[in-house]
From TrEMBL:
Entry similarity comment: Belongs to the CREC family.
Keyword Endoplasmic reticulum: yes
Name used for this protein in its record: Calumenin a
InterPro entries: EF-hand-dom_pair, EF_Hand_1_Ca_BS, EF_hand_dom
A GO molecular function held by the record: calcium ion binding
Superkingdom of the source species: Eukaryota
Compartments where located: Endoplasmic reticulum membrane; Golgi apparatus; Melanosome; Sarcoplasmic reticulum lumen
Keyword Glycoprotein: yes
UniProt xrefs under Gene3D superfamilies: EF-hand (1.10.238.10)
Organism lineage: Eukaryota, Metazoa, Chordata, Craniata, Vertebrata
Matching PANTHER family: CALUMENIN, RETICULOCALBIN
């Protein structure tokens, strides 16, 4: 893989983000919805299927017979039961839903994996990643394109070490996913905040003041009149971002800004699935309880046909 164009693309994205004076740069990371469908069990379980399996996988179940759908659900149940105690808890179900919703991320990592796993040992070391990504720049400390690749490499190494939870300088698939998509992992939040602050904190005082906050979103070089959203963001900074009213954002305030504590859709769905399926009301689900309510978790030819009849009746 040729990494130079990849790095150039990154650099151009930075330039592009600052080249449109009226276009707002978005820094806030929100969890994506579990499904594009409305959550209304009275009309069908499409939302629950999308939430439980991910939208692409849920669609594939609609072509299966009820028997095959149940069989595959049984296999999934065993995967969800992380401690193999024969039961699925809300915590295990939430973790599964979160993972199902990140399938597109795992697919992205799979596409890149072979380019960095140079020795094909099923792991990616920091040395492998560094050599593939920065190898051509290591011999040229002052490239003529204006970008500081030593600085970029140092940031990548810091993030790699944060993702490498056992500290062996080698990343397995999950650790490499955390490296490439740190905003998706709780233990990576600190490095996401740190990198954001480094990008915005132009005077290097370790804080983000109002001018830096606005300057990150809005290009002042153009002489056109400020768009209305800029004035709104000034108010947002003073009223909500700067919680202690000292005129700047510290690390904690920056985290509250870019990684807000949103409503946990995965937790809510896990609670819903347990409530609807827990026939003996012991707060956890056996495999039998889940299979008895299989149409809540997954689709099949039968449920797809039934929902089609419901839609037909509406007309």
């Amino acid at each position: 893989m040729e990494i130079r164009p990849l790095l150039m693309c990154f650099a151009l994205c930075v330039v592009y983000a600052t080249s449109k004076p009226t276009e707002k740069k978005e820094r806030i990371h929100h969890d994506a919805p579990l499904s594009s469908r409305e959550h209304d069990d009275a009309q069908g379980f499409d939302y629950d299927h999308d939430a439980f399996l991910g939208q692409k996988e849920a669609k594939s179940f609609d072509d299966l017979s009820p028997e095959e759908s149940k069989r595959r659900l049984g296999v999934i149940v065993e995967k969800i039961d992380g401690d193999s105690d024969g039961f699925v808890t809300e915590v295990e179900l939430r973790a599964w839903i979160k993972k199902a919703q990140k399938k597109y991320i795992y697919e992205n990592v799979d596409r890149q994996w072979k380019d960095f796993d140079v020795n094909n040992d099923g792991m990616i070391s920091w040395e492998e990643y560094r050599n593939v990504t920065y190898g051509t720049y290591l011999d040229d400390p002052e490239p003529d394109d204006g970008y500081n690749y030593q600085h970029m490499m140092a940031r990548d190494e810091r993030r790699f070490k944060m993702a490498d939870q056992n500290g062996d300088q080698i990343a397995n698939k999950e650790e490499f996913t955390a490296f490439l998509h740190p905003e998706e992992y709780d233990h990576m939040k600190d490095v996401v905040v740190l990198e954001t602050m480094e990008d915005i904190d132009k005077n290097g005082d370790g804080f983000i003041d109002l001018n830096e906050y606005i300057g990150d979103m809005y290009n002042h070089e153009d002489e056109t009149e400020e768009p209305d959203w800029v004035a709104t963001e000034r108010e947002q900074f003073s009223e909500f971002r700067d919680k202690n009213k000292d005129g700047k954002m510290d690390r904690e305030e920056t985290m509250d800004w870019i990684l807000p504590s949103d409503y946990d859709h995965a937790e809510a769905e896990a609670k819903h699935l347990v409530y609807e399926s827990d026939s003996n009301k012991d707060g956890k689900l056996s495999k039998e309880e889940i299979l008895n309510k299989y149409d809540l978790f997954v689709g099949s030819q039968a449920t797809d046909f039934g929902e089609a009849l419901v839609r037909h009746d509406e007309f």
